[in-house]
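Internal tracking record. Fields below are filled automatically when a chain is submitted to the structure queue. Please do not edit lines marked as system-generated. If the sequence contains nonstandard residues, flag them in the REMARKS field before resubmitting.
Queue: standard
Priority: normal
Entity type: single polypeptide chain
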Amino acid sequence: MRPQMIASLLRARAVAPRVAPALVRPMSAHAQDETFESFNERYVTFFQSAQDLFEVQRGLNNCFAHDLVPAPSVIEAAVRAARRVNDYATAVRIFEGVKEKVENKQQYEAYLEELKGVREELGVNVREELYTS
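SYSTEM-GENERATED OUTPUT FOLLOWS
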């Protein structure tokens, strides 16, 4: 083939326009309108109805992903759910998650004090009690 023929064939080829994929996922509308009280109520209800470890861990992942510290009622429901599905390690890790979410040590200690009765009832120790080094 001659160079002129090749050049004309290349020019005649239809080129599909390239479209960049959408990288932004639309946010759900209810997330912006949800109050702290409805957030807590939603997760307490969720943990009370969780039937297996996967559901409990999924709920914890979603709950702790928000930019707030869950109320003690949510933590209590989560710990009870973890013990109900017989997973002691998750129950201990819930308190580790709270420790990471709070702003200072005094807030963490306030959570521990408020949930002391639940911890004693369910036999859940926190990491500091398990590993004293």
